[in-house]
């Protein structure tokens, strides 16, 4: 049976995926190019640098290395402005009930995020105390879809990948989890997350005990 759950942060536990989009959107507006929330799906879970590369590819925009640096700084400043306003209300519906249920059932909990701002997000939303282990973007060399962040979380939990379940909202994150040998639950749109072992729309659509039953089936 599985012993731990490893959660992606942005888009799974908290609603920051939308703030990442709004931050990039301000930059693409200035470039006068089209960038939609659907385009943003392929940026999810990628590091800041990889997100910018993907954004340039999608929009056809070209930047000099100096302009690139500037765009990365600006994106982070815009994003951190959104973060200052974050509160526990930004925790996605059903998440706290799920964490409580897992904890009561002696499942260890970890966060594995590509974000260099993850600790601040956890602090602002008051989620930090739930987690035994936190691995963020400042501690990894290879971003998702590389499994490094999840493998590091498993190592710190002192477990093997097959003993943990990863929750992910991004295609790159699902790929990372599978590459690492984890069981993966996709949280969000089925067409994007089809490679996951199980897909739920969000934590409000399933009761913790029904989720528990589905998870038990996965690790059997
Ligand atoms: C998150 C987001 C990504 C974002 C990345 C880097 O990863 O999903 O969209 O680009 O962090 O964030 P930052 O610019 O704050 O370092 P995750 O793994 O928590 O979904
Ligand atoms: Mg995510």
From TrEMBL:
Keyword Magnesium assigned: yes
Cofactor note: Binds 2 magnesium ions per subunit.
CDD domains linked to this entry: HAD_BPGM
Requisite cofactors: Mg(2+)
First-level EC class: isomerase
InterPro entries: B-phosphoglucomutase_hydrolase (IPR010976), Beta-PGM (IPR010972), Beta-PGM-like (IPR051600), HAD-like_sf (IPR036412), HAD-SF_hydro_IA (IPR006439), HAD_2 (IPR041492), HAD_sf (IPR023214), PGP-like_dom2 (IPR023198)
Site (Important for catalytic activity and assists the phosphoryl transfer reaction to Asp8 by balancing charge and orienting the reacting groups): 113, 144
Residues that coordinate or bind substrate: 8-10, 24, 43-48, 51, 75, 113-117, 144
UniProt key word Phosphoprotein: yes
Molecular-function annotations in GO: beta-phosphoglucomutase activity; magnesium ion binding
An individual GO BP term: carbohydrate metabolic process
Short name of one Pfam family: HAD_2
Taxonomy, superkingdom: Bacteria
Entry EC no(s): 5.4.2.6
Keywords, sorted A to Z: Carbohydrate metabolism, Isomerase, Magnesium, Metal-binding, Phosphoprotein
Family named by the database record: Belongs to the HAD-like hydrolase superfamily. CbbY/CbbZ/Gph/YieH family.
Matching PANTHER family: 6-PHOSPHOGLUCONATE PHOSPHATASE (PTHR46193), HEXITOL PHOSPHATASE B (PTHR46193:SF18)
Protein known as: Beta-phosphoglucomutase
Species this protein is from: Thermoflavifilum aggregans
């Amino acid at each position: 049976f599985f012993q731990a759950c490893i959660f992606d942060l942005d888009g799974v536990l908290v609603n920051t995926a939308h703030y990442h989009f709004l931050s990039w959107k301000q930059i693409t507006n200035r470039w006068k190019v089209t960038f939609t929330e659907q385009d943003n799906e392929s940026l999810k879970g990628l590091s800041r640098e990889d997100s910018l590369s993907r954004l340039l590819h999608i929009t056809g925009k070209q930047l000099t290395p100096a302009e690139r640096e500037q765009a990365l700084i600006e994106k982070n400043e815009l994003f951190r402005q959104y973060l200052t306003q974050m509160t526990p209300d930004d925790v996605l519906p059903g998440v706290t009930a799920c964490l409580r249920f897992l904890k009561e059932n002696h499942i260890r909990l970890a966060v594995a995020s590509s974000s260099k701002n993850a600790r601040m997000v956890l602090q602002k939303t008051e989620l930090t105390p739930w987690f035994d282990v936190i691995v963020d973007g400042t501690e990894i060399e290879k971003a998702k879809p590389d499994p490094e962040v999840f493998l590091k979380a498993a190592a710190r939990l002192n477990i093997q990948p097959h003993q943990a379940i990863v929750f992910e909202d991004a295609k790159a994150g699902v790929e990372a989890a599978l590459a690492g040998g984890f069981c993966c639950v996709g949280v969000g749109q089925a067409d994007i997350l089809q490679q996951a072992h199980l897909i739920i729309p969000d934590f409000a659509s399933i009761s913790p005990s029904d989720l528990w039953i589905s998870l038990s089936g996965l690790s059997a």
